[in-house]
Design brief:
Elements: E1 4-9, H1 29-42, E2 47-52, E3 92-96, H2 118-124, E4 129-135, H3 137-150, E5 154-163, H4 171-181, E6 185-187
Parallel strand pairs: 1-2, 1-4, 2-3, 4-5, 5-6
Helix pairs in contact: 3-4
The structure holds pyrazine-2-carboxylic acid and zinc ion.
Zinc ion (ZN) binds next to loops.
């Protein structure tokens, strides 16, 4: 069974320039992620994609007590994956942020369409090591990586395939450092080796 897998975190229109909650240069990671996708796909390793998938009314949004403008509302164009992201047909999509009472960032709070949580899904597939890229470094990527490590997965953070919000300047750099200290390895595409 494959023990390594690629996880693409929230590479959605609303997190890219022109979207509702744009991450600066968020779209720049798309061609880089496509190289990783190609490598995992041709090595026949599984590829997972998480998405932020909110109802129109949720405590996650400013108007209802949260931090954020409305974004990634279920069924809207903003919630779709970036059109240039070359997702293979057999990508496994997991969705998070559906509970209107909760703020959730981590892909480990995401579920498949049939209700399997992400951690269970990974264990069912025999995944032990996750290669993680996507948006945003200082929110969802960070929470996902820290949860993965807490749950005992190995994590390789794809440094050239993440971008952050930096609401406070330096947030992304701090997040990268925190992930590293917690046990994530950081690589760039040239350093990628798969079993
Ligand atoms: C995210 C802010 C709000 C993320 C989600 O996925 O990083 N950030 N909702
Ligand atoms: Zn959100």
């Amino acid at each position: 069974m494959a023990s390594e897998a690629l996880l693409l975190v929230d590479v959605q229109n609303d997190f890219c320039p022109g979207g509702a909650l744009p991450v600066p240069e968020g779209d720049r990671i798309v061609p880089v992620l496509n190289r990783y996708i190609d490598k995992f796909h041709s090595t026949r390793l599984p590829i997972f994609a998480s998405r932020d998938w909110h109802p129109p009314i949720t405590k996650h949004f400013k108007a209802y007590g949260g931090n954020w403008p409305p974004h990634c509302v279920q069924g809207t164009r903003g919630a779709q994956f970036h059109p240039h992201l070359a997702l293979p047909k057999d990508v496994e999509v997991v969705s998070k942020g559906m509970n209107p009472e909760k703020d959730s960032y981590s892909s480990f709070q995401a579920f498949t369409a049939d209700g399997t949580d992400f951690s269970t899904l990974l264990k069912e597939r025999g995944i032990q090591q996750l290669f993680v890229g996507g948006l945003a470094t200082d929110y969802c990527v960070k929470q996902t990586v820290l949860d993965a490590l807490r749950e005992g997965f190995g994590v390789v953070l794809l440094e050239d395939a993440v971008r952050g919000v930096d609401l406070n300047s330096g947030d992304s750099e701090k997040a990268l450092e925190e992930m590293r200290k917690s046990g994530a390895r950081r690589i760039r595409f040239q350093q990628l080796t798969l079993r």
